[in-house]
Queue: 4 jobs
Job 1
Amino acid sequence: MMAPILKVLVVEDDRSWQQILSELLSDCGLQVDIAGSLEEASRHLKAQPHRLAVVDLSLSPKDHSNYDGLRVLDEVRRLDPNCRTILLTGFATVELAVTALTDHGAFTFLRKESFHRGQFRDIVNRILVSPPNLANPLPASVIKASASPGRFQPAPIRLPGQKALVVEDDAGWRNILEELLSEAGFQVRACASFGDAHGYLRKEKFTLAVLDLSLSGTNNYNASDPDLDGYQLLANAHAEGIATIVVSGIAEPEEIERIYSEYSIAAYIEKQTFDRAMFRRVVEETRAANKSRDELGALTEREREVLDLLAQGLTNKEIAEKLVITTNTVKRHLKAIFEKLDVHTRSAATAKATGR
């Protein structure tokens, strides 16, 4: 599954700064859009969502009293609420910086005269691994309309036996994952520590686990650290046969491959590229795989033998000859297989057997 391309908007009228910021952001794996004015920024914001916007305070090279950057921050909050903003400027008072952070929703404020590339990259990475919707994901007009009298909001349908465990120490991420899984019909147990998660695993039966690898309250992940609590929980979930999705800030390809191989996880989603729609698809695919696995597990050993031969394209007569049974016995086995797999055709049963 292709990870979504994360876009960043640079709102800056100085070409040299456009080039510097574009280079740094591209190195972080982001696709960069550039705007030199409030109007251009608005067009980009209306066209598609962005994960981050880096905004210069003044968008007029000859007018030091121009504060169009603050208006851009307001446009981001209005048009793209999931987008975080960094305000960048060559001149500003402390009071103005506080205003940008408190009244206009900037994530942080940086001065051009003390700009440091390493510090900037660190801030960008912190934003990428932070929850994508700490701000309200809906415009105020939509929230107001949905809360109006007479508008019924149905509760999600809870599916019997569908329990999901969320283990994440960041409250923002924990709330997002719990919300999405609840919408998908799961009864969710959410916790922030190894101890709580281990307790839940001992007391309850889960069909799905969504885990972070580091439960230390920091984004300074060390993929080579074997003592991360998340790895122990991965091992526990694997031993219990629980389908597991990892949502983590660790992004090293070799480590991700190792986790797939050693723990047989259902999916690995990097926080840097987290997308709600993609997460929903992964959950549904995992649910379908779980259902198919449970159905196959209900078959007797002989029924599984019959199904395997059916999947190879053998006829009833050929199956009977292979297993040294009568064709009528094959038919009885097929009837039981179809009922247990909830299918009506040989091709549908074959699809269940092969996972297609």
Job 2
Amino acid sequence: MRVLSLRSRLALIILVPLILISIIAGYWRFTVALQTAEDLFDRTLLASSLAIARDIDISAGDALSEITRDLLRDTSGGQIFYHVNGPDGVYVTGYATPPVAPGAATQPVGQPIYFQSQHLGQDVRVVRLREASNFEGLSGFSMVTVWQTFDGRDQFVRDLALRAILLIASLVLTVAVVVWLGINFGLRPLTDLQGAISSRSSDDLGQIKRPLPKEVRGIVSTLNTLFDQLEQSIHSKDVFISDAAHQLRNPIAGVLSMAEAVRSARTADDTAERTDELIDAARHASRLANQLLSYERARAGSDSGRGTTFDLVEITNEVATRNAERIAACGLDLQMDLSETPIFLQGEPVLVAEAIENLIDNALRHAGPGLSRIRIHVAQHEFDAEISVADDGRGISPEDQSRAFDRFRQLEPSAGSGLGLSIVETIAKNFGGTVSIESVEVGACIVIRFPISAAKQPYPGVRVGGSC
């Protein structure tokens, strides 16, 4: 579908109503001209009939005066025909066979009657006047009939209408030219802005700083905000790629070194030992690569499941069940404290599952040798859903809590990558939620809170016990 340019839109918005008003004004002017012509020509017919009646009364029917003949000859409407009957109804002067008025009612004296009829096959406008008269001692009422064709009247109307149409058309054309030139002049800042943007290089994401009309400032302000966000996103990706390359360099070098050691092993026992070391190194590199991808996916805020509604309790139970064997293999106790009613969230369930997985993995890797249990708690409050993972290990000191969510930051040397809690924080922000480290007497407790709408929940939210 073709979209009109802004210039064409403005021209149509201004000119279409103007043209419609001009058409209405032209039609109104035509009707006024028609009415004006009818009034003028009717007055001419009446004046002619009065002059003829006066002359006939003065001359007793002999002849019309020179002035009256000039009036009949010089009328702008063309030739005027007349017919006069005397007091006894006898023809006095004028043209024979005058048009006949419709109806046979008696005409009042001194009041003209107008009607339309035909004379010699042409449409004519007729006025008939009944006047008192005295012909050679014979007193009574004479009847004067005057008529005229519509040719002159129609020509007069056409001339008036044509003048009005030409005047309106010239005004509309003048306004159209002025509007078009005005629109082009008014839109010049936009064309200048387009030229300024198109002249930029692909690397130039700086703000647009130039004088602009206030109608365009909002668009440019939004565009500048978009440029800033895009620049920050590109910078963040560059930093991430640099960090990822740095973090993957050592594990990949370790895998390569272990592989060479396996190849150069002299005995079967050395080969088996070095193969186990190679597998551990490969697992570490794989885990790091997966976490890097998970972090980038969470940071980008994937929209693949943006409209999916899922149960937080069900997702948590699936993740806990998947890790139960791993936790048991470490000789640890897994405690589950889940809400008895569903807690529905809107978003991508895979990301939430990844966040829970990272909290469990963080407890296993960093809680220390004193770890004996891991507790997972899920509850619903009035305005948010809450999930926490607590352990009874060494915990996180208050001075380390502010650094725990930094990328690639390890509070103590371990086999981790330093991305787990950073991934959790990013996923929580994507859902509009928060993640925090709660103060507990023993161990550590990390809590994620997701905002929810209580109206969408099938049951009222009830908080059971504490989070940690």
Job 3
Amino acid sequence: MIIDRSSEEPFVPPPYPYDRLTPMKEMAAAHEGGAIDLSIGSPFDAPPASVVAALAQSDTERGYPPSNGTPAFREAAANWLNRIAGTTISGADVGATIGSKEVVANMPHWLRLRRPDLDTVLFPAVSYPSYAMGARLAGCRAVPVPMDENWRIDLSAIDPADAKRALCLWVNTPGNPAGGIDDLAAAAAWGRANDVPVISDECYIEFTWNGPARSILTEGNDGLLAIHSLSKRSNLAGVRAGFYAGDADLVFYLQELRKHGGFLPPGPVQAAAVAAFDEQTHVDVQREVYRARLERMCGILAKIGVDTPMPEGGFYLWAPAPDGDAWGLTERLAREAGAIVAPGDFYGEGGAGYVRIALVQPDDKMDLIESRLS
């Protein structure tokens, strides 16, 4: 469904998706040991001690931090992406962010300031809700792009008329919620052929299970932007640290605009981010933790008749609901297991027959789920 917010009607915020789970939370909380929240990808595991120490000892609290990122932050971010994905960016190609959600939600507004003649945001039909909401907040048309049977964006399904009006095309690899891996080379080629910036949300890049980590910037920078975050990689969602990188003209525009908007990643956060980007061992350990949890939950679900494939990437299971009744499966898991999960319609109409399960809780919580269901 295309959502057009270009009229003059006042915008009324819809209910926040996860607020709709309140009855499930109450049901799950009735279990001895309480509710187990698997609905949101909020990390539970500890961040590295060296990163926490850098956060506390940066001595950057008094002065205003640079909006675009300190030279150390930008170089560390560039070096990290080059190391894990084979890109060739430099610190000059990078701008710091306050996490990644603020960038996703605000990007259509900023792009429309740059190109007021365009009004359309293209995004995967089953995806992170902020792609569509960002378009609505900017008064743009939010146009979902169909996905194939492997939950990959189908570029051939984009209407040429929508492409001509497009401010950007969002891609997300590994994908949230379904864990698909897009053909990023094809997305880059489509964007260049249609003169549409392609913005690749890559916040789960180091939890890629099908092949190596992938970034769209391996295709070069022109017309492309990659968004990254330390929230998932380093269990730092509460710190809010991320960056954008890519096309020189677009990066410069965003850097200048964000200065005026007062988007200032705190100095201690930038210092902690440098430490996190420079340290790889904690991520390697976390990868194995998430892989084990995913495999274990697949087994638990199979025992109650919900056969769920491993994702190609990310730390979510995209579980097909029996008879396509996602809210029914959501209620069953809350009632029987005390587990709160997210119905797939939170991520688009095409997700209505699935639930998303975030494997962020520790082993003792997994033990509780398994014992309750058995």
Job 4
Amino acid sequence: MIILDFEKPIFELDAKIQELKKINTGDLSIVEEIKRLENKQKKMLKQIYSELTPWQKVQVARHPERPKAEDYINNLIDDFIPLSGDRVFGDDLAITAGIGKFKGMSVAVLGQEKGKNTEDRIKHNFGMPHPEGYRKAYRIMDLADKFKLPLITFIDTAGAYPGIGAEERGQAEAIAKSIERSLQFQCPIIAIIIGEGGSGGAIALAVANYVLMLENSIYSVISPEGCASILYRNSEKASEAANALKLTAQDLFKFNIIDKIIDEPLGGAHRDFEFTIKQVGENIKTYLINAQNIDNLKEHRCNKFLDVGRVK
């Protein structure tokens, strides 16, 4: 497992526990010492993760071993049929799209996929979509609207790809049209931020009736490094920028920008895939049921975003 800087004391204890287990031959004193260290490790883990700073939450949200969009799709969506291409330029593997069944209900799915290893990350462009990715999303929304399918989106991106080719092919327009299409969508949209929710690249798929966030995920207008480069002229002040951005799930829930914080297992989503995916599935089900009781889904969605930042 990849160890984050603030987790080092936990893994130093773990190393001692593993060493004792290797030499343990049934000696009661060693067994008791192992139990004592395990309890100490658990308490330390709980304390550290209950006091995470915004910058530490950024690190957890970016943890390479967190469940990715395809993990949720593979475990929550039955009979998933992937759909490719934007019918204009090509296919963008940073966005996984398709249709399938969620707990017996036909749904459309969009997910920003970062990849799990170096080869996979390069293949998926580290989860940073090109314009054709957002045009593919637009196409899937058209299809879902035609067949009255609810839309589930999994958000996990540092932002839309900022390369010259992407800009030449109309990155800003593609994002704007994806947002516009989301606002016109006739059926429920449920968006779940599972890791990073970065800038317009995230909101292009997060204009939803209900926006849910995992406990240690982040959602912001710009990355802490980008913010620090602009405001402080020094990207090394990213931790200060993270504090100022109010990018944690707890901050965003307080500001009514998101609707629900989904609990993660102790120590982050990367420590227990099964628990995390189950929690996400249960919350999607709850909010899909809630959405069915909304009279005008388009109006509900529009008002939700018009109310952001409004002083009442």
